[in-house]
Amino acid sequence: MNIIFGIALTFSLIYFVSLLVYIYGLEFPFQPKNVNRPFVSVVIAAKNEEKQLPGLLASLSKQDYPADCYEIIIVDNESEDESLAILKEAERKNPNLKILSTHGIVSDFTFKKAAMNLGIENARGEIILTTDADCELHSGWISSMARCFDKEVGLTAGYCGFRYNHRIFHRLQALDYLMLMTAECATLNLNLIWGCAGNSLAFRKSLFREVGGYKDIRERIGGDDSLFMQIVNRKSSARIVFDSNPLSIVQTQPVDTISGFIRQRARWAADANYMFHLNIPFFIVIVSTFIANLAPIGYFIGWLAGIVGVAPLGILIVLKLVGEVTVAWRGTRLFRQTELRRVFVPWFLLQPFYVVLMGILSFWGNRMDWNRKRSPLDLMKQDENQSN
Q1: CB count, 10 Å around CB of 58?
Q2: Quick check: 347 and 174 in contact, CB under 8 A?
Q3: Nearest to residue 180, comparing CAs of 261, 253, 262, 289?
Q4: Residue 290 C-alpha from the chain's centroid
Q5: Is pLDDT at 67 greater than 80 in this prediction?
Q6: Is the N or the C terminus of the chain less surrounded, counting Cβ atoms within 10 Å?
């Protein structure tokens, strides 16, 4: 039992140190220096987003960047709803908007990356900005992200938060995502290339071609964000930064159902597994995060069964609590969402079960459809039926 606790404590301490790194990294925000206005191409992939496209298009039309300095390319990835019709109508009204489709296009890539690659190859700008079709953008998003590209910077990540209302489920998702964004911001401030989100990302087109684009991750269902950033870091000397300017904020919609939440997070977690091939130190942190959440569950069950004492359980919980509450307080202050502190306690209590579940389901995440019709649980049942 002492050996098991030693292993659990070791990984919990690694996780605790990573939380301290996040706290420390927030003290060194990136300061943009570029005062020029480069021509920018905003590239977005859309699939079955008819309900979300009006909000996206409205926010794109309100950008304060000079109209002659940017273009918008939205690539419909064979939608089965009215997405393409909505986009074609918007194209007629907006001279900056160009609509493409992957229908009938033979591509070396699958899922979203096929659409993204088509859009990037047709882009006129050297600076490529990407977001998702279910997002809404602050009016200063293009301006703020473009300012980050001095001579050294090759890739910039930005902040994305969840829109939320009174529903506690939405607020829990918002806090959880804010914690991820806080970690992303802090690590990039320290030049630790760990993770990013594709719903607010920018990079040089020349750099995209230099590293082979998505070629190394063509079989992954995702990877156009964190995995691509890892490839950029491995194959180039370009600087990677985080834009924490409030004007660069992007908002996305939380999911409404538990099943939708599981599908979304399992897809994200699938990329984490692949980090073993790209960034061993970050992969160790990922494994430590999993064990630091699994261990308290195991020791709590052991304590209820009278197998272990309360002291080991208390040590593991205190390490998590001290680190996570500090990161949450600093992150909510930085990104001006202090009201999310009200759901920290339920988030803290639920997080161990959520992290462990997503860690398990991540092994099926890369086999899901981009249009989100199949969940990891569906794939597990399929595998079981095939084995029988």
Answers
A1: 12
A2: no
A3: 289
A4: 18
A5: yes
A6: C
| CA separation for the pair 32, 34 (Å, rounded) | 6
Helix (H, G, I), strand (E, B) or coil at 96: coil
As a 3-state breakdown, the chain gives helix, strand, coil percent values, each rounded to 5, of 55, 15, 30
Residue ranges per domain, the chain? 2-23+277-375, 30-258
40-46/127-132 β-pairing: parallel
- Residue 165's pLDDT is 85
CATH architecture of 30-258: Alpha-Beta Complex (3.90)
- Give per-residue pLDDT as tens, 327-339: 999 999 999 999 9
DSSP assignment of 156-204 equals EEE-EEE---S-HHHHHHHHHHHHHHHHHHHHHHTT------TTSEEEE
d(CA 171, CA 162): 8
pLDDT in tens, 159-211: 999 998 889 999 999 999 999 999 999 999 999 999 999 999 999 999 999 99
Per the CB < 8 A criterion, the answer to whether 356 and 293 are in contact is yes
The string of pLDDT tens digits covering residues 306-316 is: 999 999 999 99
Structure tokens of 97? 């908007």
Considering Cα of 3, then 8, then 12, then 14, what sign does the dihedral take? Answer: positive
50 and 81 Cβ atoms separated by less than 8 Å? yes
Could you tell me the CA-to-CA distances from 240 to 150, 184, 204 in Å, in that order? 11, 11, 11
